[in-house]
Every structure is written in C-alpha cells, then in structure tokens.
Amino acid sequence: MTKRPPAIYQPKGVTILHEDRDLIVVEKPGGLLTIGTDRDKTRTVHSILNEYVRKGDPRSRNRIYVVHRLDRETSGILLFAKSEAVKLQLQAEWPETEKRYLTVVHGSLKEKTGVISSYLTENSAYRVYSTNDPAAGKLSRTEYTVLKEARGLSLLEIHLLTGRKHQIRVHLSEQGHPVVGDSKYGKGDAAQGFLALHARSLTFKHPVSGQLLSFETPIPAQFTRLIGPVESLYPTDSSQQRLSAQPPEEKR
After folding, report:
1. Which residue range(s) make up the domain with 1?
2. d(CA 159, CA 149)
3. Is residue 20 within 8 Å of 1, Cβ to Cβ?
4. Domain co-membership, 85 together with 136
5. What pLDDT digit, counting tens, does each position of 94-151 carry?
6. For this structure, is 71 an active site residue?
7. 240 is a domain residue
8. Is 179 in contact with 195 (CB distance < 8 Å)?
9. N or C terminus of the chain: which is more exposed, having fewer CB within 10 Å?
C-alpha cells in the first residue's frame, strides 16, 4: 500500500478502497461522471483522482489512467491505473475480470435466473437498443439472479459477461423490468432521485504482482429503503469494505 498524502489532499467525493504504486480502486457515488466528455466538462472521478495523486502540485507528472467507466448515475467500484502500461494490461485482461452489480427493477421476473443475450447498437440520439442484425450491433450478455421480491420490485444480482454501454439498463428494460429510477430506459420514475444500479464487486489479477484482488461493497442504503432489509446476504453498513488478496497461482 502507498502512503496516503496529507488530509488536505485526500479526494473529496469518492472513497478509496485500495491503492498501491500501480493502481487505485475507488467507490463512486451516483451522479458523478467517471471522465469528462466533449459535451460535459464537469468535475469527474478522473479529475478528482488526478488532483489527489499530484498532491497539490500542478507541475506534477503523476496522473491517473481510466481502465473502464460507469454511467454517471451508476454507483460503485471503479478501477484506475497509474501508468499507461498498467492500464493497457488491465484492459487486455478485462474480459476475465469478474464484474458483479446489484440492481432493483420493476416487477417480478418469470425466470429467477438466466442470461439475457442480444446485439446492442446505438442511434444518433445516443439511445442504446437491441438489434436482430449481428453486423449492426455488438453481442452483449447479462447474467442475472433474483435475490428478493417485495413491494412490486425485485432485487437482482448481475454478473456482467460483456461490458457494453447501458447494457444492464437496456437488457432489463427490454425484458419489461426497467431499473428503478431510470429516466432514459425506464418508467419515468426519476423522482426516486437515484438510479438503482450499483457496481457491487470487482475481482481481477494484479497486473504486476499477480495477486488475485477482490473488492466488495455493501448493499446501498437506498436499495434497502426500496426493497426492505436483505438478511444473510451482504453487509448493509456502508462503512464496511472487504478486500481479499490471494498469492499468485503457482505455475505447473
């Protein structure tokens, strides 16, 4: 673990779960962009962490590299690299990285476990949708398990088998079970004030040490307000974080 800078330079708005000389793992809140876009230059996780690693020195050459993104309204775990080489290695191994989400959706799914597969594409209005033409879209696969049903809603665990833009939201909406609070693909219930989609855990091999790292966050309190308590599943205290690190596998 690297030594943390003084409190004055600690990042404001994100929670650091792990940091070493090669990478940094954080939990972001909903409503914060991962990185700026041509259309939106507001404060982002990327800019917050760049300020953090520069420790207040604008001349510092330290910087953060984006490995993957979460939608603005999606909360949860994000992984960043501290060098171009580490970023490229993490991205090359991204298909093997295990990514699990929690979401609350409308209604009750007929099949309590399953895999949703389709070819996703995007129109000129930046809206993602499924197409029957494999040449026009990218194969996208979302594995889900229903964890609890209550109050006309369902809590799902999602195992993201591919990582396309808006994939979880589109797949569930097209099944007739949009994510609660999704104003773009949902039921117009943005009055909830948040999108009920959370990147709950991330498991990957450290690109330098080879250690297997696994990060897990609790169920967001907003989810339990929607669906009620979820006993004997995951911790609900938002202050709890878990990191497990295993030594690299022996080569045989």
Report:
1. 1-92
2. 19
3. yes
4. no
5. 999 999 999 999 999 999 999 999 999 999 888 999 999 999 999 999 999 999 999 9
6. yes
7. yes
8. yes
9. C
